TrEMBL record, chain A:
Component of the Smc5-Smc6 complex. It comes from Equus przewalskii. Residues 245-266 are annotated as: Disordered. Belongs to the NSE1 family. Residues 191-232 form the RING-type domain. InterPro entries: C1-like_sf, Nse1, Nse1_RING_C4HC3-type, PKC_DAG/PE, WH-like_DNA-bd_sf, Znf_RING, Znf_RING/FYVE/PHD. The lineage of its organism: Eukaryota, Metazoa, Chordata, Craniata, Vertebrata. It catalyses: S-ubiquitinyl-[E2 ubiquitin-conjugating enzyme]-L-cysteine + [acceptor protein]-L-lysine = [E2 ubiquitin-conjugating enzyme]-L-cysteine + N(6)-ubiquitinyl-[acceptor protein]-L-lysine. This is Non-structural maintenance of chromosomes element 1 homolog.
Automatic annotation (TrEMBL), chain B:
PANTHER family: MELANOMA-ASSOCIATED ANTIGEN B3 (PTHR11736:SF53), MELANOMA-ASSOCIATED ANTIGEN MAGE ANTIGEN (PTHR11736). Residues 42-241 form the MAGE domain. Pfam families: MAGE (PF01454). This is Melanoma-associated antigen B3-like. Gene3D superfamilies: MAGE homology domain, winged helix WH1 motif (1.10.10.1200), MAGE homology domain, winged helix WH2 motif (1.10.10.1210).
Length: 266, 288
């Protein structure tokens, strides 16, 4: 931003509608966010030029700042898609979930979260999570019930399920990064390149450093001999491709068809 | 008024909050604790209350003061009204949502969403409630019958729409429960016994939430549209609706005079979007 004094942005109905719709979705991919932005202009101010997305969002964030909320941009861990979510900055707990879930359900989430963080792959099996059902705070929960609660987490975009295993939804990573770092300071993994929280990624088999798949993709792009940035040993894993929104649109690949890169290369 | 403007406009006296997240993958931001201490202590608790209100917006239930007080730290309880004022100001300016008191004795409030999202802001899989189309029709019938319609008149109207008591409708569910209980609980309708009626007969009136969220003119516009005519065709009702609009304009004008000049800079056009039942959201999957 320019200078030391910053003008707080102007909110119009375009911005308000955008904010509300983004909130409704929880998290959105960049392409959808751009469509949403254009739509909001169409509804409220169809003659205006659509502002560049980054500026548009910075504008809104300058107003949101005093409320300890911000529109945060992140990247999906498996295939590097840019995503946006409205995130609470002042909370130090799973509070955004607290309003939708009961005490024992929140505790189930915390247990699943711990298993995910401690795991090598960033995935926790359904069985292992359900085995912790007896340790939950609050009302007693049966395994059958817990299975449904896990599905509820998936529906609300807090967890993602792949072949009977669960990991954090990109929304949860965006929203809870600070909370996760504070509550699991020792167990938490961090990407050697971007220093962001790491749940899924690739690791060096020699020195053990880890990197996000999209970070690996960018770092080793067009590098025929990828080497670990830390110990210089040969990087043994398949290098993913850098996410290209243009290529994706042209190929008309729908989300359901696209196979996200699996991060089982540990 | 300086406290109000402080909530929304302030000069940034620091740099360094990283907005260039484009370069990093989910980059870690250090907690804003150093900045927070420079701020007015009410800012944070206002933020908490706003987040609570945003959650209640989803719930579509009336909000009571007691619940709001739970969100506010004990040490700020004495400044609750000030915090509430700031929070409702932020809700209006930032999100386009009004906090309105519907019952001053019970300290209950509702949130009126001026953004007028289709499906009441819920995304496709949610079953939005109440069903706007039916409610508007009911409010219309009540208005046309002189602001009070007997239960018989309401059922005559509903039957014409092939909605029958006891018969579960695929959109509305069981209609009798919907209109005599659910919509009453949500304060959209009032259902009361006709005075001195024996055997007891019942009548419907607009509830306080209907008065807050819509207006006689809007309902008339809706009726006109579905009857392929114009509001002024409903002569006496039109006059009444015009009077109602005038009264509302005067009431709003008095409130606006209170707000800060700074507020109006940030506010922009805060007018409620007109109800567009034919509003086609570009992508219904995205926009509800």
């Amino acid at each position: 931003m320019q200078g030391s004094t910053r003008r707080v942005g102007i909110m119009t109905d375009v911005h308000r509608r955008f904010l509300q719709l983004l909130m409704t979705h929880g998290v959105l991919e960049e392409w959808d966010v751009k469509r949403l932005q254009k739509h909001c202009y169409k509804v409220h101010d169809c003659n205006a030029t659509v502002e560049k997305l980054e500026d548009f969002i910075n504008n809104i964030n300058s107003v949101l700042e005093s409320l300890y909320i911000e529109i945060k941009k992140g990247v999906t861990e498996d295939d590097g898609r840019p995503i946006y979510a409205l995130v609470n900055l002042a909370t130090t707990s799973v509070s955004k979930m607290a309003s939708d879930f009961a005490e024992n359900e929140l505790d189930l989430f915390r247990k699943a979260l711990e298993l995910i963080i401690d795991s090598e792959t960033g995935f926790a099996s359904s069985t292992n999570i359900l085995n912790l059902v007896d340790q939950l705070k609050g009302k007693k929960m049966r395994k059958k019930e817990a299975e449904q609660v896990l599905q509820k987490f998936v529906q609300h975009k807090w967890l993602v399920e792949k072949e009977g295993e669960f990991t954090l939804h990109c929304r949860a990573i965006l929203e809870m990064e600070q909370y996760i770092r504070e509550t699991h300071p020792d167990a938490v993994k961090v990407c050697d390149l971007c220093h962001g929280l790491l749940i899924q990624g690739q690791s060096c088999e020699t020195c053990g450093i880890k990197m996000h798949l999209p970070c690996v993709a960018k770092y080793f792009q067009s590098n025929s001999e990828p080497r670990c940035p830390h110990c210089n040993d040969y990087w043994p894993h398949e290098i993913p491709e850098v996410f290209d929104p243009e290529k994706e649109r042209e190929a008309g690949i729908s989300k359901s068809n696209k196979k996200p890169l699996r991060s089982r290369q540990h | 008024t300086t406290t109000m403007s402080a909530a929304v406009s302030h000069t940034r006296s620091y740099e360094g909050v990283n907005r260039k997240t484009a370069k990093k993958c989910s980059s870690y931001q250090a907690p804003l604790s150093t900045v927070q201490s420079q701020r007015d202590p009410l800012t944070k608790v206002t933020g908490m209350l706003v987040q609570f209100l945003l959650h209640m917006l989803k719930m579509k239930k009336p909000i009571v003061k007691a619940d709001m007080l739970k969100v506010v730290d004990k040490k700020y309880k004495s400044r609750f009204l000030e915090i509430l004022k700031r929070a409702s100001f932020s809700m209006e300016v930032v999100f386009g949502v009004d906090l309105k008191e519907v019952d001053s004795a019970k300290h209950s409030y509702i949130l009126v969403n001026k953004m007028d999202l289709p499906n009441n802001g819920t995304v496709s899989c949610g079953r939005g409630f109440p069903k706007p189309g039916l409610l508007m029709n009911l409010l219309g019938v009540i208005f046309l019958k002189g602001n009070c319609a007997t239960e018989e008149e309401i059922w005559k109207f509903l039957n014409q729409m092939r909605v029958y008591a006891g018969k579960k409708h695929f959109i509305f569910g069981e209609p009798r429960k919907l209109i005599t209980q659910d919509l009453v609980k949500l304060k959209y309708l009032e259902y009361q016994q006709v005075p001195n009626s024996d055997p007891p007969r019942y009548e419907f009136l607009w509830g306080p939430r209907a008065h807050a969220e819509t207006s006689k003119m809007r309902v008339l516009e809706f009726l006109a549209k579905i009857n392929h005519t114009v509001p002024s065709a409903f002569e006496s009702c039109y006059k009444e609706a015009l009077r109602d609009e005038e009264e509302r304009a005067q009431a709003t004008g008095a409130l606006r005079a209170d707000t800060d000049a700074t507020a109006s800079e940030c506010c922009g056009p805060c007018l409620a979007a007109p109800p567009t039942s034919s509003e086609v959201e570009a992508d219904s999957s995205l926009c509800g």
